[in-house]
Amino acid sequence: MIEMHDVWKTYSDGTNALRGISIKVNAGDFVYVVGPSGAGKSTFMKLMYREERPTKGQIFVNGFNLERLKQRKIPFVRRNIGVIFQDYRLLPKLTAYENIAFAMEVIEAPKKHIKKRTMEVLELVKLKEKADSLPTQLSGGEQQRVAIARAIVNNPAVIIADEPTGNLDPETSWGIMKLLEEINYRGATIVMATHNKEIVNTMRKRVIAIEQGQIARDEVRGEYGYED
Question: Does the predicted TM-score (pTM) go above 0.85?
Answer without folding.
Answer: yes
